[in-house]
Amino acid sequence: MSDSATAFAPASIGNVAVGFDMLGLALANVGDRVAACRTDGSAITVAEVRGLDGEIHPHLSSNPGENTASVAAQALWDACGASGGAELKVFKGVPLQSGMGGSAASAVAAVVAVNALLEAPLSVEELLPYALEGEKYASGGIHADNVAPSLFGGLILCPTVLLPDTIRLPVPNGVSAVLLHPNLQVNTAQARRGLARGYSMQQWLSQQGYLAGFISACASSDLDMIAKTLKDVVIEPQRSAAVPCFEAVAGAASHAGALGCSLSGSGPSIFALCEDRHARNLAVAMEQECRQLGIDCQSFVSPMSAPGARLEP
């Protein structure tokens, strides 16, 4: 048992186009950090939340009932009957409302850090339900497509009907993920409320086929099949109009060698999968197209086997 601990949790690509609410991919080298230390209190508190610039975050609350990190950590603390309290410091590395799983990353980093303060820490797998409580607060429902890859790393299949069980999927050899984050915001909870409530049998069958084909193609490293199946015929058509650069960026990605391109989560971030050798040029092409539309942006290149959350020295 430690008196203090700091954890990092990576950002993630939710849905991965083919698996709405049930498929997610961890991103390397971008994420949130949470530092936790024991206190003489009786609950989880938040000392501060700092943004990408290192300053106090102007929009995220330090009220422990209104922050995904503290909501998740409190759920774990209560379930384990921990004595005393703990104070959190949250350091946001994921832009707000970016479609990069920022609320999930904070929740995951918090439970990993607080878990290290417990007399009998839980296994990583046992932490998932508590991190999901934080995501539930942020988005209004239980879905693990950001939380699970942030916690476990890699490509994770996590249908709600199977939770808390998840499935780590094999990733194709020689394939990278490229994510473009335009300087825009999309509120996930609002985006979910705007989705249609009914879909045709043909849409359902098509999307199920793409999901099954994509999973099989990843396992066999069949890049041609990945290109045929990395499609979203249900959710993307409803959400892409809210991201004014989507069509242009997706077109640039296709011309630069992408196997497929779609929204990351509810957007505005846009991701593509491609062969490793095309990744850097693809990122540049996507950035250039976005900036030509007058929208500032940044890009990230990640292996599909990026690691999950971890304690830091």
Q: Which characteristics define this entry?
A:
single chain; 313 residues; alpha+beta; Ribosomal Protein S5, domain 2; Alpha-Beta Plaits; 2 domains; seven-stranded mixed beta sheet; four-stranded antiparallel beta sheet; 10 helices; 34% helix; globular
DSSP strand content: 15-25%
Mean pLDDT reading: 95
Distance between the termini: 15 Å
* Main CATH class of the largest domain: Alpha Beta
The CATH topology of the largest domain is given as: Ribosomal Protein S5, domain 2
**CATH architecture identity of the largest domain:** 2-Layer Sandwich
Given as residue ranges, the uncertain stretches (5+ residues, pLDDT < 50) are: none
What is the structural class? alpha+beta
State the oligomer. Answer: single chain
- Count of domain modules: 2
Number of strands: 11
The run of helices and strands is: EEEHEHHHEEEHHHHHEEHEE
Determine Rg (CA atoms, Å).
19 Å
Number of helices: 10
| Shape designation | globular
Helix content bin:
25-40%
Largest sheet: 7 strands, mixed
Topology overview:
Blueprint: E1 4-14, E2 23-39, E3 44-50, H1 68-79, E4 85-91, H2 102-115, H3 128-139, H4 147-152, E5 155-157, E6 167-169, E7 175-182, H5 188-193, H6 201-220, H7 223-229, H8 236-239, H9 246-255, E8 260-263, E9 270-275, H10 279-292, E10 297-303, E11 310-312
Parallel strand pairs: 3-4
Antiparallel strand pairs: 1-2, 1-11, 2-4, 2-5, 5-6, 7-9, 7-10, 8-9
